[in-house]
Input
Amino acid sequence: MFRRLFFLLLMGCALVSTGCVSRRLTVKTVPPGARVEMNGELLGLSPVSKSFTYYGTNEFKVSMPGYETVQVHQPTPAPWYQVPPFDFFSDNFLPFRVRDHREFTYQLTPRNSLQELDEQTLRNNAENFRSQSQSGPIP
Output
């Protein structure tokens, strides 16, 4: 009787402690330090990591002062062990932890210097050009 109870207790502990898949993604940028948003949620400054539950397509928005904003629909396909019916066994019965780590790197391009001009500077330049055109060419 004691052996049977011990065996059932041991099997119960083994079943409870098995199977786990951890999913994590990391977003890096060149140059680092850009603001990263995933599906409208701020993740932080790159490089930044986040755990996720579901595979699929995520929308990333990467922005940094002086650089063009990058918006990407990034697919994150499921590995073979996370496709039904295999996912049930990998999530519940594997005797070890499975780590799925995805890394995405985005290259930021510098903005054109004309795009960096603020509205006030643009107005001042326009006024200067207007006054020069009214006074005639400079000899």
Q: What stands out?
A: The domain at 20-135 is CATH 2.60.40 (Immunoglobulin-like). The longest strand covers residues 20-30. The two ends are 112 Å apart (CA to CA). The chain has three helices and seven strands.
